[in-house]
Design goal:
- This protein is mainly α.
- It has helices at residues 14-22, 28-35, 45-52, 58-64, 69-87, and strands at 5-7, 12-13.
- Strand 1 (5-7) and strand 2 (12-13) form a beta hairpin.
Length: 88
């Protein structure tokens, strides 16, 4: 097995970054929130940006259409709120 470390400070591999991206992380900050990558020396942030690229990101697509981040978050939470309202 060949491991390519993206963040040597926390031992985060490119595979881990790609897995988190596939699970919905769209930005280096989102990757950092789950892995700590990029939060120490910061030298890996550009590499993480390169891995994430400019691919499809639901929140980014909403923002590019002129919706605010708050609207994007509300859109993400709407199905869960409907489920909770139905359970009450």
């Amino acid at each position: 097995m060949n491991r390519v470390y993206v963040c040597s400070c926390f031992g985060i591999t490119d595979k881990q970054v790609k897995e988190h991206a596939a699970a919905g992380a769209c930005t280096p900050r989102q990757i950092a929130s789950v892995t700590k990558a990029g939060t120490d020396c910061g030298s890996c942030v550009r590499t993480i940006q390169g891995i994430l690229g400019r691919g499809a990101c639901p929140r980014r697509e909403l923002l590019e259409k002129g919706r605010t981040a708050a609207d994007a978050l509300a859109a993400d939470n709407a199905p869960a709120e409907k489920e909770l309202a139905g359970a009450a």
